[in-house]
Amino acid sequence: MNNLKLLSSKLSTETIEELYKNLNLLKKELFNLRFQQALGELKNTSRFSLVKKSIARIKTELTKRSNSEEY
């Protein structure tokens, strides 16, 4: 994902499969960032917060959808 600043309007138009796909990609990127940090190779530490916030946005959208399906 090139554009990490995901807008909630963009997320609301994606399918659940796309959301899970993006979530997995972001989790892999977060793992790689942690690995680079442990090795001392990480240059852009602000990327951590962007990735974490994007993961939170996707999880929020998934929770919102699952709660709306229950009612």
Automatic annotation (TrEMBL):
- Give the family per the record: Belongs to the universal ribosomal protein uL29 family.
Task: Please indicate if the UniProt record lists Ribosomal protein as a keyword.
Answer: yes
> Which lineage do the record's taxonomy fields give for this organism?
Bacteria, Pseudomonadati, Pseudomonadota, Alphaproteobacteria, Rickettsiales
Provide the GO biological process annotations: translation
Name of protein: Large ribosomal subunit protein uL29
* Cited NCBIfam families: L29 (TIGR00012)
Gene Ontology cellular-component terms listed:
cytosolic large ribosomal subunit
Q: CDD domains given for it?
A: Ribosomal_L29_HIP (cd00427)
Q: Which PROSITE patterns match?
A: RIBOSOMAL_L29
List the HAMAP family: Ribosomal_uL29
Q: Name one GO molecular function term.
A: structural constituent of ribosome
Q: Which UniProt keywords apply?
A: Ribonucleoprotein, Ribosomal protein
InterPro entries recorded: Ribosomal_protein_uL29 (IPR050063), Ribosomal_uL29 (IPR001854), Ribosomal_uL29_CS (IPR018254), Ribosomal_uL29_sf (IPR036049)
